[in-house]
Design brief:
The protein is built from ten helices and 14 strands. It is an alpha/beta fold and about 325 residues long. A six-stranded mixed sheet has the order 6-7-8-3-9-10, with helices on both faces. A hairpin with a 2-residue loop joins β9 and β10. α2 runs parallel beside α4 and α8 runs antiparallel to α9.
């Protein structure tokens, strides 16, 4: 048990009839982080979240919360925004928000005071006495987000939180999620959309076909799964450089420099790490080397390669656990 981890999932498996939803999945969530739980639709993400929230139980394995096996009362320390939104359409917005807040242990007075602040912050204060079925999808999601975070839980779990949001409101939610992390909360962010992962996630686990296939810090995973592709800026004889690099590396792009440009550019692929220094030496001896920069793949590139089976069975990066 690691005291730096707020949540640990140990060798969890879950089957439904003939379908295996999770197959020996392990992961550890560091305190005070935004942890991305990634994977395509049907990979097993939501099943794992339901197990963490004690909505369903694993067939094998266990979940540890704060260093011990998770208990029913721990749900008061967790905030969960499910992908399938659920508000009672005929209730008034404020009345329903208070109802959910009280289920999380808040007094009516504290619930109303906290909700009013959040409603003003999200620009929906005028909807307090309107019925839920009058809300747009985006406004309904704002209400559910507020109810999820109102009791200031230590662990927040968002399942596809940006689904249906326009870019402005999606950015608002991102800022709030990062703000909650900065105040000490730990966030699990489940998605199959990679566009915001690099912006808000510190660590990720990628689940594909019910198994954990990739785990680690986002920056370390991107660097680890780079393909030794480099961008070079230089000044000198283009043809002479091509000849100097022949047999040392693959020249992927070497365009003619734009008229008036101070430096020319070159993109190369170095097959072996051990040859990188030699390649730099060749360039430096032949032309004036301005910069030599590794092009790090995006999480979207890595996601596509992993789901397509183009990455080796992943080992953990950093101090987190993986399947064993």
């Amino acid at each position: 048990m690691d005291k730096n981890m707020i949540l640990e999932v140990e060798h969890v498996s879950k089957r439904f009839a003939r379908h295996t939803a999770l197959d020996d999945v392990s992961l550890s969530i560091p305190r005070g982080s935004v942890y991305g739980l990634l994977g395509p639709n049907g990979a097993g993400k939501t099943t794992l979240i339901r197990i963490i929230n004690r909505i369903t139980a694993p067939d094998q394995g266990r979940v540890l919360f704060d260093g011990r096996e998770i208990r029913p009362e721990d749900v008061y320390r967790i905030g969960y925004l499910p992908e399938e939104r659920g508000l009672y359409k005929k209730m008034k917005v404020g009345e329903q928000a208070v109802f959910f807040a009280r289920l999380k242990g808040l007094s009516r007075r504290d619930a109303v005071a906290g909700l009013k602040k959040w409603f003003v912050k999200f620009g929906i204060e005028s909807w307090w006495d309107r019925k839920v079925d009058e809300l747009s999808k985006g406004m309904a999601q704002k209400v559910q987000f507020i109810v999820t975070v109102l009791h200031e839980p230590e662990l927040l779990i968002f399942d596809e939180p940006f689904s249906g949001f326009d870019p402005i409101n999606a950015n608002l939610l991102k800022e709030e999620i990062l703000g909650l992390r900065d105040k000490g909360a730990t966030v699990i962010f489940s998605t199959h959309n990679m566009s915001s992962v690099e912006e808000i996630c510190d660590h990720i686990t990628l689940i594909n076909r019910s198994r954990n296939v990739l785990t680690g810090r986002v920056d370390e995973i991107r660097r680890r799964h780079g393909n030794n592709i480099f961008q070079v800026a230089y000044r000198g004889d283009r043809d002479l450089l091509d000849r100097a690099l022949a047999g040392e590396c693959e020249i992927m792009e070497h365009p003619e420099p734009e008229l008036g440009a101070a430096y020319a550019s070159l993109k190369i692929h170095v097959q072996d790490d051990a040859r990188v220094r030699s390649v730099i030496g060749r360039i430096n001896e032949t032309v004036e080397l301005r910069s030599f920069t590794e092009l790090i793949p995006s999480m979207n590139d890595i996601f596509i390669r992993a789901v397509g089976g183009q990455l080796e069975e992943a080992q953990p990066v950093g101090n987190e656990s993986s399947n064993s």
